[in-house]
Automatic annotation (TrEMBL):
Keywords: ATP-binding, Cytoplasm, Kinase, Nucleotide-binding, Transferase. Its EC number is 2.7.4.25. Coiled coil: none annotated. Pfam families: Cytidylate_kin. InterPro entries: Cytidylate_kin, Cytidylate_kinase_dom, P-loop_NTPase. This is Cytidylate kinase. Residues 10-206 form the Cytidylate kinase domain.
């Protein structure tokens, strides 16, 4: 492929620590597409609510934070970690927050095509995306990866607590009434439990080749 197809949108969904972010960034680089981690929008919203000493489950406070987001909010250094994870999941369950951020995400993807990763890209944000991937892994493997990630950042963590926090996040994301975390009906489910990043990338690129009907050179 010499360049991205106009309007090509690749949706990469899945739970935390499944490898979707790493995969989505690599796909975007290989295909010459813009990349958006949509989770940052919800993390930044949750962080703004916490900064205001409000409850991330409060619809009014969360909507106010979402509508006030700026590019600087997405560049903050405190958008990762257990507190930010739970706050992001809480605000993401609020319909007014999702509505406030929906147009922003769609505009980003439609400018010239993009790879977007999140939890409802293929089901809600871009239900007509050219390629839809749902990246997952076993709970034990995801907890192991998240623990190693925290260790690499120099963040103290207990493996049992990390696993419990992931379970809580999964339950909150999958049971919310608005845009729950589920694979799109036409998504290719990619289980990375036994795959390293190279193998996951190769598998995803094969799906892109199939959907696009042309050969994409490895990148």
């Amino acid at each position: 492929m010499t360049g991205p197809a106009p309007g090509l949108v690749i949706a990469v969904d899945g739970p935390a620590a499944a490898g979707k972010g790493t995969l989505a960034r690599r796909l975007a680089a290989a295909l010459g597409l813009a990349y958006l981690d949509t989770g940052l929008l919800y993390r930044a919203t949750g962080r703004r609510v916490l900064d205001a000493a409000a409850d991330p489950r409060d619809p009014a406070a969360a909507e106010l934070a979402a509508r006030g987001l700026t590019p600087a909010d997405l560049a903050r250094g405190d958008l990762r970690g257990p507190e930010a994870d739970l706050a992001a999941s809480a605000v993401a369950a609020i319909p007014a927050v999702r509505a406030a951020l929906l147009d922003w995400q769609r505009d980003f993807g439609r400018r010239r095509g993009a790879v977007l990763d999140g939890r409802d890209i293929g089901t809600v944000v871009f239900p007509d995306a050219t390629v839809k991937l749902f990246v997952t892994a076993s709970p034990a493997e995801r907890a192991r990866r998240r623990f190693l990630e925290l260790q690499a950042r120099g963040t103290a963590a207990d493996p049992a607590q990390v696993a419990a926090e992931l379970r809580a996040r999964d339950e909150q994301d999958s049971r919310r009434a608005v845009a729950p975390l589920v694979p799109a009906a036409d998504a290719m489910v990619l289980d990375t439990t036994e795959l390293d990043p190279e193998a996951a990338f190769a598998t995803a690129m094969a799906v892109v080749r199939q959907r696009m009907g042309e050969v994409v050179p490895p990148g």
